[in-house]
TrEMBL record:
Belongs to the class-I pyridoxal-phosphate-dependent aminotransferase family. Pfam families: Aminotran_1_2. Keywords: Aminotransferase, Pyridoxal phosphate, Transferase. This is Aspartate transaminase. Its EC number is 2.6.1.1. The lineage of its organism: Bacteria, Bacillati, Actinomycetota, Actinomycetes, Micrococcales. It comes from the Bacteria. One of its GO terms (molecular function) is pyridoxal phosphate binding.
Amino acid sequence: MAASYPASSIRKMFNLALDFPDAVKLTVGEPDFNTPDHIKAAGIRAIENDNTRYVANAGIPELRQAIARKYSARWNRGITSENVMVSFGAMEALTFALDVTVSPGDEVIIPDPSFPNYMGQVHRLGAVAVSVPVTEDNDFKLRAEDVRSAITDKTAAVIINSPSNPLGSVMDRADIEQIAALADEHGFTVISDEVYDEMVFDDAVFTSIAEVGAEFDRFLAIGSFSKTYAMTGWRCGFVIGAEDFIAPMALLQEGLTSSLPGFVQEAAVAAIEGPQTAVEEMGASYARRRELMVERINVIEGLSLLRPAATFYAWVNVSEWGLDSWELATQLLEKHNLATIPGSAFGPAGEGYLRLTFAVSDETINTACDRLEAFATAR
Ligand SMILES: Cc1ncc(COP(=O)(O)O)c(C=O)c1O
């Protein structure tokens, strides 16, 4: 399995860009803000108070409760700490979610383009990934109709990701409702990766799978502290679902890593229970930088960018330039010192696009767009 694990082209481009230390980088998928001070202080305090030993497999009770309280309120649904598993980032939450719902040979429906780790994790289980294209005609929103046509009697799970990396789109509530209904009808689980749930701009409305009346045994909702609270390196995520799904995850964790560090979890409690001003400020800043990106990209000859509704990713249509996206990203790096991610890194339907991160300074956005303009002129 390891020998055939699909290599990430994001990582490949990242490594290539290391040879260009002065390159302007729009590659990383993380906030450019530091973790807010009160969260860091809670982590430091926890270490000083010697919370440095093994803790419970499923997470410390305080964190599981804090997550349960937060999402009970957001979803208007009774969530208890027994419904919450704390994980090493959303990444491990995804591992758990697939482990408890999918067996070798099963099919897992994933959007194309999507976060490349979905493909990798499905492969790890010896399951089969079935891609459903998400297109610009549909404003880059996954449609329930398209999911429906990919369902077979081997479908064990459908992974959805709204708001989407790399597309920056937010799915329509009606599609989420219909996918929940399909899960009921066909008996599969919806694994809903919602790590960008709080990075949604004013004109868009995010709906969680947990809000549309999906039966508790038909979905797993994945969240993370990484993006919302600028905590990517703390590696703290979680998955919320029925107790029958969550309890075995704790057993799996015992054999994997035993538990997340207790001090990381105390910092996560502070993130949820402390002031949310930093989250709002970071969101406002992404929204503002989105406008700059949209304005600058859409006047460059041959490029077009649909205004992203969420996240900090611009999914730029480069098809008029007529170059394969990997080739284009390589040329931009080698000739213009600009690092981007080729759309094909996210699946075949990503061909013809580049992903640009706008979690960077205005100056970086402007310099990057100057370089894209220079490329357009030199063609
Ligand atoms: C869609 C999506 N899911 C999951 C993750 C992983 O997040 P975490 O840092 O919580 O593991 C990312 C990170 O880029 C992501 O974009």
